[in-house]
Design brief:
Helix content is 36%, strand content 14%. By secondary structure, the chain is an alpha+beta fold. The protein has 2 domains: 91 residues, no CATH class; 119 residues, no CATH class.
């Protein structure tokens, strides 16, 4: 029911945690490798599952504490998972204590949720010039770069997506690819580092993305990075999200 690059017997006896993670593939970048192994152990020789009767006992068997003294590779991954849990628990407990709270920057999301995948706000528009801007969800509207305008602020946030920060290799070049009044308008309405780009067809380019950087945008599928612009080292080194326990 579950296929991996290596047979379960090989994974069960593998002493090196890096080899285990490699055999598990891209899933090990999203989910905790130890949990994946325990799940594979529970499912690999099953030929059928009764829903919902089998679900709870199988989950309980997957997450039942175990020392893993006979499997050194699994034990290393379990240690990594426990350390990660303790770290996150400590962060949560610290942030609940008002006496431990540092002075936070005025940035949305700081201190409210765990985020190990930094993102950068990207505002998308159909067109932009010195006097008008056309967002994806409406016609051209006059530029407002002199005073804060509530309607403009709402329009900016409606057309904003969050992209992985590592896509923007030249963050100091943000807002350099749009006209000056547009950059001034964005800075007036949104604090912190933010980028704006004009969508040409389905393609997005900006100085902050670097010379080889380009994004794809589809109204249904959303935002993605063109695979041809990613190096092998970027694909292998980047962790998509935190572990799902």
């Amino acid at each position: 029911m579950i296929e991996e690059a290596a047979a379960f017997d090989t994974l069960r006896d593998e002493p090196d945690k890096q080899s285990l993670c490699k055999a598990l593939g891209k899933k090990a970048r999203v989910y905790a490798p130890y949990v994946l192994l325990r799940t594979l152990e529970q499912w690999h020789d099953q030929i059928r599952v009764r829903v919902p009767g089998d679900i709870r006992p199988w989950l309980e068997a997957t997450y039942r504490p175990r020392a893993e003294d006979e499997r050194p590779g699994w034990k290393q991954l379990l240690k990594d998972l426990d350390e990660r849990r303790r770290k996150h628990t400590g962060q949560a407990e610290t942030i609940q204590n008002v006496w431990n709270l540092p002075v936070l920057k005025d940035e949305e999301g700081i201190g409210t949720r765990l985020n190990e995948c930094p993102t950068l706000p990207l505002i998308l528009a159909k067109s932009a010039d010195q006097k008008t801007i056309a967002f994806l969800d409406g016609p051209p509207i006059p530029m407002q770069s002199v005073r804060f305008d509530y309607a403009m602020a709402k329009a900016l946030h409606r057309n904003m997506v969050k992209a992985p920060a590592w896509w923007f290799v030249n963050k100091d070049r943000c807002l350099r690819s749009v006209p000056g009044p547009v950059a001034k308008m964005v800075a007036l309405h949104i604090r912190g580092t933010v980028e704006m780009a004009v969508v040409g067809g389905n393609s997005i380019t900006a100085e902050s993305l670097g010379e080889a950087g380009a994004l794809d945008f589809d109204i249904d599928r959303g935002l993605s990075r063109k695979l041809g612009t990613m190096t092998a080292s970027q694909l292998n080194a980047y962790d998509d999200e935190s572990y799902d326990w």
